[in-house]
Amino acid sequence: MYLIADIVISIVLVIGGFFIFVGSFGLAKLPDTMRRLHGPTKATTLGVGSILIASMLYFLIGQGNLSFHELLVTIFLFLTAPVSANVIAKAYLRKNGDGKSDADAERRTPAEKAAPVR
Questions:
Q1: Angle, vertex CA 24, rays to CA 90 and CA 34, nearest 5
Q2: Does residue 98 sit in helix, strand or coil?
Q3: CA 28/CA 25 separation, integer angstroms
Q4: What string of DSSP letters covers 11-34?
Q5: For burial by CB atoms within 10 Å, which of 62, 76, 77, 103 has the most?
Q6: How far, in Å, CA of 31 to CA of 22, rounded?
Q7: What is the spatial distance between Cα 24 and Cα 4, in angstroms, rounded to a whole number?
Q8: Where are the compositionally biased (Basic and acidic residues) regions (predicted)?
Q9: Among residues of the chain, what percentage have pLDDT more than 70?
Q10: Euclidean distance between CA atoms 35 and 64, whole angstroms
């Protein structure tokens, strides 16, 4: 029984590590702000959630008690990551005004940059 539980926990940890790696890589390598939002909010959220769930399973099976701390952190993470991504996206759109990428914003003329944001 413990061998199967250890294998399941290890698989969930590896999946979580993979998602964290993909999210961090996306944050570092994607070209503009709107694309960089997907790395930390999607993949990294799943990665940290998987690691917290693996921790819950470990303490439930190994010590026989359910840890509500990991459950609360997981719920908090899944609730706050989309909200923070939405706030960052709205700030980005407010700054650029037209939803164009950072590369497009750098090519705009000073008159286009000074135009009021709608």
A1: 25
A2: coil
A3: 5
A4: HHHHHHHHHHHHHHHHHHH-SSHH
A5: 77
A6: 15
A7: 30
A8: 96-111
A9: 81
A10: 42
How many Cα atoms sit within 13 Å of 102 on the Cβ side? Answer: 9
For residue range 103-114, what is the model confidence (pLDDT) as tens digits? 555 566 666 666
Give me the residue label for tokens 């290890």: 10
With tokens 């439930």, the residue in question is 60
pTM over 0.90: no
What is the rounded distance in angstroms from the CA atom of residue 20 to the CA atom of residue 64?
A: 28
Q: Which amino acid is at 5?
A: A
Tokens representing 107? 């090519």
47-90 pLDDT, tens per residue? Answer: 999 999 999 999 999 888 888 888 899 899 889 988 888 898 89
Q: Do residues 30 and 39 lie in contact, with contact meaning Cβ atoms separated by under 8 Å? A: yes
Which amino acid, residue 63?
Answer: Q
Nearest Cα residue to 104 out of 32, 36, 44, 43: 32
